[in-house]
Design goal:
By secondary structure, the chain is of the alpha+beta class. The chain has helices at residues 10-16, 37-57, 90-94, 118-132, 148-151, 192-196; strands at 22-26, 29-33, 61-64, 68-72, 78-81, 85-89, 102-103, 109-113, 136-141, 158-165, 168-175. The strands form three sheets. A six-stranded mixed beta sheet has the order 3-6-8-9-10-11, sandwiched between helices. Strands 5-4-7 form a three-stranded mixed beta sheet, with helices on both faces. The longest helix is centred in the first third of the chain and has 21 residues, at 37-57. The radius of gyration is 17 Å and the shape is globular.
Length: 199
């Protein structure tokens, strides 16, 4: 008889996840997140762009690719998500400098760069981030691998910006040379074409 192991709590996940690499807590188990070099290039470019804008306007944010957030599914399961890029209020970040790089409070902005497991970003994380109250959520589908119901026909690379309004996400999509409108970085000059130059 095989004995089932107990699902990890969020705290146990933080204490037992390996130091090297990116990991998430999904359904009580530690899951390693592997990304292609293209994926990393896109995430790093967006992070660098946000950092430059934050510095230019002296905005009180921390931009990082190392933050884990505690989320909850519709059926109450606790997850540990690791966005590709996170923007968090600097005061919140500085409030507990000895804590892990993990938050139970909502981020200002989370970015997920879509990989082959696109349903995680379009469905699961969308619901969990909305439930947590993350004010802005970007889905960066630079390979146009999501479904036609999102991307249209023909499918083209798209950035979806979700803004939390009265507890629900309102979404805008951006393609090609359209300037991506960010509620957080409202002077940002960034297009999907510029993101695609990184791949």
């Amino acid at each position: 008889m095989v004995q089932a192991t107990r699902p990890l709590t969020f705290e146990e996940f933080l204490e037992s996840r390996p130091e090297d690499g990116r990991f998430e807590l999904v359904n009580g188990e530690i899951v390693r997140i592997l990304a292609t070099r293209q994926h990393d290039n896109v995430a790093e470019f967006i992070s660098d762009t946000f950092k430059a804008e934050k510095n230019r306007l002296q905005m009180p944010f921390r931009v990082s690719g190392r933050i884990v957030v505690r989320t909850q599914t519709s059926d109450g399961r606790i997850q540990g998500r690791h966005p590709d890029v996170s923007v968090v209020d600097q005061v919140l970040w500085d409030s507990n400098p000895l804590a892990y790089s993990a938050l139970s409070e909502p981020l200002q902005l989370a970015v997920e760069v879509v990989s082959t497991n696109w349903e995680d970003d379009y469905v699961d994380k969308l619901d969990e981030y909305q439930r947590l109250g993350i004010k802005e959520y970007w889905i960066v589908d630079y390979l146009a691998i999501g479904p036609r119901s999102y991307l249209g026909n023909p499918k083209v690379p798209t950035v979806f910006v979700h803004q939390l309004v009265d507890g629900k996400y309102q979404v805008q999509s951006f393609k090609e040379s359209n300037r991506i409108i960010s509620p957080t970085f409202n002077e940002l000059q960034l297009t999907v074409e510029q993101i695609l130059e990184q791949v």
